[in-house]
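Anyone? Bumping this.
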Amino acid sequence: MTGFWLALLEVAGILLVFGAAGWLAVSRILPSGPATRAERVAWGFAAGLGLIAVSVALAFVLGVRPGWVLAIVCVACVAVGLTFRVSGLEPEKSGPRPGTRDAGLGRRLSVAGLFLLVLAGIGVYALRAIGEPMWSNDFLAIWGMKGKLIFELGRLPERLYRDPALTFSHPEYPLGLPLLYAGISFLLGDWDDHAMALLFPFLQAATLAALWGWLRRRGASDALAMGAAAVLALDAPLYSGFHTGLADIPLSFYLLLLGTSVADAIDGDSRAPARSGLAGFLAASTKNEGVFFLALALLLGWLAPAAVRRRVQPSLSLWLLSAALAAVVPLRLWRGSVPLKDFDFGFLKPTLWGELAQRILETLSVAIREVAWPALPCLAAIVALWAAGRPAPFADRLLAMAAAAALAYLLLPALGVYPSRPELGPIFLVHTALGRTVAALAPLAAAGIAGRLIPLFPAFRLTADS
Amino acid sequence: MTARRRIAQLAAAALAAYFVASDPPTDLPRPIAFLRHYASQSLPVRRLGGSSTDFDRPYFILLEWARRKLPPSARGLAVFPDREIPGRGVYLTLYEFAPLPAVVAPARIPPGWLALVYGPRRPPGWRVVADLPGGALLDPAP
């Protein structure tokens, strides 16, 4: 076996081992009930990625070089702490199970066909992701650069935010993904930006598992849940070679987990607030807008019906605020305040509102002409799917979250200023970021849209496992 | 209800078709051929064969040679290409040499740094540390 294939296997092993460790660490807050095994695996994987990144940061704080020793200690702590509790992966023994037992052959075949589409989507993306060493500009300039510096130096270098030669690498961004890259490299013993690309198909598969599991738990038929996963698996604007190595695919996974867990929390799942905190921490540690999504999640909690709010809000708020603090404060203490590089919030001053209005119009016109218009068939299909569904508060909450974020992504370029070329105006962010950032909302939107379709494609509830 | 189901199914099929059409898998033979050809090669060779170096592969060959020839005492590297290097070439340069600080075409070379010149030019007074394919590693210190 050659070096690349061996390294690929090693990365797969690291991700699987830490996925298992993550599952052990958070097994007490994972969704319970029937048809959630895939969802639990996805949550375990997310927690495992968090464990890797946090372990590296913790090792630096303790002055220890990260590596297998720390990993073993970490896994052992989790395992001992939870007294080898493994019930989370056992089949559920009670309660009705959204059934397939009475499904006809035609229905089973259609589900199998959709599953093949899911596999095809994962396979196509996997080939694009690992088809060569990670190559995107933003990987080389930002995420990979920081991860490589952290790994090669064995510490968090102040250069990350002080070196004028590295200003293009956005010192104001969170370090969750670079720490994850560094952690995988410490475990691998080398910086391998080719084998490490395997992380991204794993993230895609975990996203699809979380989507499928959540929809099934919410009462969707196997065909609807698999159909939603199939469409998302084929989402080339998100799962592309260009996005491999960037923070958008991990963020899209964490946002799906955040949205679904907040919806669960509002509907009374006592374990969900803690899950929201975990997903929110991962999102806010990956990209700055993760904090914005935490704020949206808080808002959704506050807007819940009064009876629900009284029951849920304290716990949900506590977890979401803790997540925001845990993601932001350590970084702030380490590097101080670093302004957002591509934005000038001076345009918000009342004296500049005229210019701001002009910039907003310019932004919207370019966004409609160059981003929305070419994607019109896609937008029309999404609107048709939304209109075909039935109002469902749990699903509409996810869509509200996605819509608010899309609106923010649409308007934010109006505040954009390209550092060395202010004459470019606000348009450069529409060209470079709008499509990419909105694409990361796809899993969240898919869950919301499919949730509205559940009354049209309900699961059989005829059987209970015995 | 049936009409809504049918609309949902058609819209989902259209969305999936749009996704596939927006980036058809016609490119898949390329990664397969790449892996078949390069999987047994070292990581720098794989990068050389990939997209990140397609703007100027000889430039990357020079970077890779320089990375291997850099003396441990070098505190940084100033790279002077004799032609326009695109932004991604600049990012690749800095990424390639990380954690060693590197800058492309700086106005001033910090003390203790070496210079990497891409092309035949050899500024007078700069000592040649190593002649490399496509350029040279130089010490600008007097």
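Late reply, but here is one note on the structure posted above: Chain A has three domains: 1-88+129-246, 250-335, 356-456.
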